[in-house]
Specification:
This protein starts with a helix and ends with a helix. Helices cover 48% and strands 18% of the residues. Strands 3-2-1-4 form a four-stranded mixed β-sheet, with helices on both faces. With 133 residues, the protein is an alpha+beta fold.
Length: 133
C-alpha cells in the first residue's frame, strides 16, 4: 500500500488519470491540503472533484479507479458540486490541478468559490453567534 504522498506523485501527469476522469464525467480534479505542502506529512490525500453539471456522477466508480490506480486507500474525496463554500474554496484556491477538461474551469470555479464564501460569511458568523448562546 502506498502513502498519500506517493499516490499524489502517481496521479501527477498520469495519462490514465485523464481517461478515468473523462469516463466518469469529471471536469476538474484537484489535490489540496497537507499532501501538496512542501514539508507536509499527509496521512491522506485530499482530492476535490467537480463533475459535469447535469451529467452522471459515479463517485464510487471514480474512487475505486483512483484506489486501484494509486494502490492507496487514504483518499479523501470532496464533491465540489455539492460542497459548501468554505470547503470548495479550500479545495480550489491554492490547490494543485490534476485534471481539467477544458481551459479556465479551475479559474472560474475558484473565483466562484471565493465570492460565495465572502458573500455568505455573515451567515456563518450569525450561526456561530447563535451556537455560543
Amino acid at each position: 500500500m502506498r502513502t498519500a504522498g506517493q499516490a499524489l506523485e502517481m496521479l501527477r501527469g498520469s495519462a490514465s488519470l485523464t481517461a478515468v476522469c473523462r469516463e466518469r464525467g469529471v471536469i476538474l480534479l484537484t489535490a489540496f491540503g497537507s499532501a501538496i505542502k512542501p514539508n507536509g506529512m499527509p496521512h491522506d490525500l485530499d482530492l476535490g472533484v467537480l463533475f459535469e453539471y447535469g451529467g452522471p456522477r459515479d463517485l464510487l466508480g471514480l474512487l475505486d479507479d483512483l484506489v486501484v490506480m494509486t494502490d492507496c486507500d487514504f483518499l479523501d474525496v470532496t464533491v465540489l458540486n455539492d460542497a459548501g463554500p468554505v470547503i470548495r474554496e479550500r479545495a480550489l484556491v491554492g490547490a494543485e490541478v490534476l485534471f481539467e477538461a477544458r481551459r479556465s474551469i479551475h479559474a472560474n470555479a475558484s473565483i466562484s468559490a471565493m465570492l460565495e464564501r465572502m458573500d455568505t460569511a455573515w451567515m456563518r458568523a450569525l450561526i456561530v453567534e447563535e451556537l455560543a448562546r
